[in-house]
Amino acid sequence: MTTPKFAQIKQFIVDNIRSGAWLENQRVPSENELADQFSVSRMTARRALSELTEAGILTRSQGLGTFVASFKSQSSLLEIKNIADEVKARNGNYSCTVLVLESINALAPIAIALGVEADSVVYRSVLVHNENDQPLQVEERFVNPALADSYLQQDFTHLTPHEYLSSVAPLTEARHTVEAIMPNAEMCQWLNLYHEEPCLQVIRRTWSSTGIVSFARLVSPGSKYRLGGHLTFKK
Amino acid sequence: MTTPKFAQIKQFIVDNIRSGAWLENQRVPSENELADQFSVSRMTARRALSELTEAGILTRSQGLGTFVASFKSQSSLLEIKNIADEVKARNGNYSCTVLVLESINALAPIAIALGVEADSVVYRSVLVHNENDQPLQVEERFVNPALADSYLQQDFTHLTPHEYLSSVAPLTEARHTVEAIMPNAEMCQWLNLYHEEPCLQVIRRTWSSTGIVSFARLVSPGSKYRLGGHLTFKK
DNA sequence: ACAATTATCTTGTATATACAAGATGGCTTG
DNA sequence: CAAGCCATCTTGTATATACAAGATAATTGT
């Protein structure tokens, strides 16, 4: 008996749901019933139910019982991975080109996004992430100097901005939006696009405990890049 | 003392991380230390650490200790919500128009995506989801008749296809991809677009225990629709 | 000096027990 | 008959205890 008892009970429950034997919103055995059935203590049976509830596969309510969660309530999740890791994962040759690394006076929209005063100095970088020496994504990033004052001295061909910023300011929050845009002429040049092509744009804002750290715009050609997501009953 | 003890300990730990007092990869107090510090049993302290580990805020390793998880390892997640719910959530007027509801002979790519033989009969629906009577998203869906034989008899102006399919075949898995595309003429007409505009396209395939249930293509204008994601240390 | 053992710390699994609190049905009482 | 009470089910919180197993540092023996 190498697999723990609580894991066996989890497996038993998941199998019943996967096979369709237990349908949505149907009641599952109570803690005491499972404890008897598997000859374990109530706390062990409880652990199986609790962890599956935390995973969103079951729902519980005190006094009533435990039920199979409705699939509808499962929100579908998409991962936004580090692009360097993604390229390496598919055995591509990853490289990075630094196009711009400067300090500028923030225009109003940038200043607002970074939570600093308009026209104050912020850092700006534009990098191109390449796979097999072909542009895959352009990263334009605005950084709050108060939280990362040596940003301009970094060598981003070896350390990504995100990695550097994480080490300088402990990140506490991030927000993303994904949209489809048409690249402007400058972006076309950066991405080496000869004809106009729709692009995926991810806007990422990262917070630290003391304020907004940076504001990044990640643009990739729709023909070369896509986001993947996966949702499954398992474990 | 209304809030449970384990929740208080979780709060204490999260506060220390948010404030930057405990940095990435730094060791946090052990179960026994927390138990002494808060005058609780080891099992209660353990619960706080376990739940924060499950949430991805801490990492643990047997024999070594518990550590603040590195932000880098946190995968950023995007939610794909039900569009009807989203519209209603912002107090919009949601409506749905059924453009196509038919059975067709599947071309090769559709047949492969659905896991059926080429040229076999499958169901196809094209719906337009409207916000305040303006097209927001086109949903083109191909359905495996073996798993939902009364699909064509449904009234999708009141029940979404996803809701109907969930009730008929217990869903066990879903996969998504998001990309930026340029709509063709037919799609432009459906979306009421006068000039060409980049669109966000979500492809969703859903599995049941007995096979692939359906294959959906969700297309929204880039100017009207975006996906939002959010990642935070909390609870 | 070096290798093997031991002690001691950590997390991981499991049990038995106790009481609190929500939900439900049946019973008692007015 | 109906309102209130109570027994009994459920999950939720909390403790004390025991042993297993991984990791590390100290100790011991050669």
Largest chain interface and its two residue counts?
Answer: A-B, 55 and 55 residues
Specify the number of helices of chain A.
7
Give the CATH level 1 class of the largest domain in chain A: Alpha Beta
Structural class call of chain A reads alpha+beta
CATH topology of the largest domain in chain A: Chorismate lyase
Describe this structure in words.
The structure is a homodimer of 235-residue chains. In chain A, the strands form two sheets. Chain A has a six-stranded antiparallel beta sheet. In chain A, strands 1-3-2 form a three-stranded antiparallel beta sheet, covered by helices on one side. Chain A is elongated, with a radius of gyration of 24 Å. In chain A, strand 6 and strand 7 form a beta hairpin. By secondary structure, the first copy, chain A, is an alpha+beta fold. Chain A folds into two domains: 5-73, Arc Repressor Mutant, subunit A (Orthogonal Bundle); 83-221, 3-Layer(aba) Sandwich (Chorismate lyase). Chain A has helices at 5-18, 31-38, 42-54, 83-89, 108-114, 161-168, 185-191, and strands at 27-28, 58-61, 65-68, 76-80, 94-105, 121-131, 134-143, 171-181, 199-208, 211-221, 227-232. Strand 11 (227-232) of chain A pairs antiparallel with strand 8 (171-181) of chain B, so a sheet runs across the interface. Chain A binds a DNA duplex (30 and 30 nucleotides) through helix 3.
